[in-house]
Every structure is written in structure tokens, then in C-alpha cells.
Amino acid sequence: MSEQDRSTLFELMGGAETVRRIVEAFYPKVQNHPLLAPLFPSDIEPVMDKQYMFLSQFFGGPTLYSDVHGHPMMRARHMAFPITVERADAWLGCMAEAMQEVGLPDELRDFLLQRLKGSAYHFVNTPEDE
Ligand code: HEM
Questions:
Q1: 83 Cα to the center of ligand 1, angstroms
Q2: Helix 106-122 vs helix 85-102: angle between axes, to the nearest 10 degrees?
Q3: Which backbone phi and psi does 107 adopt, to 5 degrees?
Q4: Which of 29, 70, 74, 101 is most enclosed, with most CB atoms within 10 A?
Q5: Are 55 and 87 in contact (CB under 8 A)?
Q6: Given this model, what pLDDT does residue 35 score?
Q7: pLDDT tens track for 97-113
Q8: Is there an atom of ligand 1 within 6 Å of 27 CB?
Q9: What CA–CA distance (Å, rounded) separates 26 from 55?
Q10: Does this model's pTM top 0.90?
Q11: Do you know which InterPro entries this protein is assigned to (predicted)?
Q12: Can you give the pLDDT at residue 5?
């Protein structure tokens, strides 16, 4: 997909405001999920800010995350946490619900989730039985 198409994707979603709303719908679900909650700090605001910056950039919007935090290296940044396939599925499930809540059209939501799915499974670093 070209750079121009990715910008269109961010705009198609509704830009910064929609990304913010997705992040705000997503983290309460993460904090309520038995497999995910233990990995996250109770002070979730800084994580939400980073995710807002990252997802804006990931979907082709402004490079907010890299401007502040440098190269994303997202797999490396997740190595400190035991990420199993089950947790990747849980993360994607929370994200699907958040996108649903925000009211993204089904087709667009499925497309965005498909892109996140690749990353989520790429971050798996721990076998299921650990
Ligand atoms: C596969 C399941 C995933 C799990 C279990 C997970 C878990 C975590 C945890 C525990 C943190 C650290 C929170 C802290 O600061 O203490 C984190 C940070 C983060 N995650 Fe994930 N994550 C997953 C997938 C993803 C995906 C698919 C993306 C985006 C494509 C993503 C983007 C981020 C970002 C942007 C941060 C902040 C990084 C930073 O500290 O600068 N995560 N994640």
C-alpha cells in the first residue's frame, strides 16, 4: 500500500478524533480482561497517550509517536511482557469491540483489524503454557 493510500486510511477513519475515541474505548476493556490486565500499570493514561500517537502513525496519519519516542521497534518494546497467542487474541478482541463501539463501518473496521492482527501475532514471544 502506498504512503498516499495510508494517509487516506487515517482520514477515512475520521482522523485524530476517531483514533482518540478508539484508544479511550480500548483501554478500559484491556484493564478488565483477565489475561491482559495484569500486564498493564494502573496509571493507564501514559499508555493511552503513546497508543494514540502510535496508532495515528500506524494508520498513516502524522508521525506523532516517532517524533517523540524515536523508532517504534514495537516488537522489541513488547519483549519485556509475556505475550502468548491467547493474549494477542485477547488484545485484538478488545480492539474489535472498541472499534465497534466507536461506530466504524464494518468493512473499514475489518480492514484495520486485519492490519493490527499482523503486528499482534508478530509480538508473540511466549509459548502458551508459560
Ligand atoms: C499482542 C498483544 C499485546 C499485548 C499483550 C500488549 C501489551 C502491552 C504492554 C504490557 C505494554 C506496556 C504498557 C506499559 O507502558 O507499562 C504495551 C505498550 C504498547 N503497545 Fe502493546 N500489546 C499488544 C499488542 C500491541 C499491538 C498490536 C500494538 C500496535 C500495533 C501495540 C502498541 C503498543 C504501544 C504503542 C505501546 C507503548 C510503547 C511505549 O512504551 O512506547 N501493542 N503493550
A1: 10
A2: 160
A3: -65, -40
A4: 29
A5: no
A6: 98
A7: 999 999 999 999 999 99
A8: no
A9: 12
A10: yes
A11: GlbO/GLB3-like, Globin-like_sf, Globin/Proto, Hemoglobin_trunc
A12: 52
Cα–Cα distance, 91 to 36 (Å, whole number): 7
Indicate whether residue 33 lines ligand 1 (CB < 6 A).
Answer: no
The reported pLDDT for the residue numbered 114 is 97
Number of residues in the chain: 130
Q: Which residue has the cell 522489541?
A: 76
Side chain identity, residue 76: A
Question: Residue 42 burial by CB count (10 A; 0-12/13-18/19+): exposed, middle or buried?
Answer: exposed
Q: Whose grid coordinates read 500486564?
A: 39
Read off the DSSP letter of residue 112: H
Query: Ligand 1 centre and the CA of 12: distance in Å?
Result: 24
Domains, the chain, in order of start with CATH, read: 3-122 (1.10.490.10)
For residue 24, give the C-alpha cell.
479511550
- Cell numbers linked to 7: 494517509
